[in-house]
Amino acid sequence: MSPATEASEPSPVLLELVGVTRVHGDGERRVVALREVDLRVRLGELVAVMGPSGSGKSTLLNVAGGLDTPQSGAIRLGRDVLTDLDVAGRAALRRRKVGYVFQDLNLIPALTAAENVSLPRELDGVPSRQARKEARAALAEVGVVELADRFPEEMSGGQQQRVAIARALVGPRRLVLADEPTGALDSHTGEAVMRVLRQRVDAGAAGLLVTHDPRFAAWADRTVYLRDGVIVDATSDDDASELLVGAGTGRGRHAGDAGD
Ligand SMILES: Nc1ncnc2c1ncn2[C@@H]1O[C@H](COP(=O)(O)OP(=O)(O)OP(=O)(O)O)[C@@H](O)[C@H]1O
């Protein structure tokens, strides 16, 4: 096989939204938070979502991860069609496949880093010993395995966010949904957390990142811009990203990598 043939092989699509519409409220309070949104995110790909306040960014993340359901359209996660599942089915799929990282460093204060990371696996029925092993591996991947036995209050904000990224992608989970994960951090720490997220996605995950800050969006492979629930612009479309994905992983396609 020639290198050119290898290079044209795109990574599989992990998350796909087709014609997704989500309306909140009714009557005078009716808001179309998402209108006929189409989006695909491949393994190895980090997609930034930007847009003004109220444009639908959080709603997009919530429907993508099955925390919220659209009125119409379809959402596929790997081989599963989220929008065909009932509440219990969505919750199970979410636990197995999706991790969240929020702005407010939402680790459980009474649990150590390792316990925070192993908890979702134990909730999913994985035996404690294996869950702990997976947690240590996940912490090692984000460079904080030495913090395994510390409680959140004994860690810096940036360290807590690394633990949150480890928790989001522990075990077989492959989709990370990050809503302003750098919002509570200074810019230097925020960059360090973005580097970890980028590396983790490159190592075999897909990510959707809501951010207001173009410096953090620069770590993504592409950016989609939402306005009034509609994707109005994107730095490059899926076809373009297919060509880029051919280079192997996502590395080397983002401005933030230069100083790595
Ligand atoms: N549970 C809800 N009930 C009613 N309206 C809602 C609800 N959630 C969101 N909305 C409305 O849907 C629209 C999109 O909200 P969303 O939170 O997705 O926007 P956003 O881009 O994430 O905003 P921000 O940047 O301020 O977090 C807004 O007009 C918001 O007021």
Automatic annotation (TrEMBL):
Pfam families: ABC_tran (PF00005). Keywords: ATP-binding, Nucleotide-binding, Transport. The keyword Nucleotide-binding applies. Transmembrane segments: none annotated. InterPro entries: AAA+_ATPase, ABC_transporter-like_ATP-bd, ABC_transporter-like_CS, ABC_transpr_LolD-like, MacB-like_ATP-bd, P-loop_NTPase. Residues 15-253 form the ABC transporter domain. The keyword ATP-binding applies. GO terms for cellular component: membrane protein complex; plasma membrane. GO terms for molecular function: ATP binding; ATP hydrolysis activity; transmembrane transporter activity. PANTHER family: ABC TRANSPORTER RELATED (PTHR24220:SF685), IMPORT ATP-BINDING PROTEIN (PTHR24220). This is Putative ABC transport system ATP-binding protein. It comes from Salana multivorans.
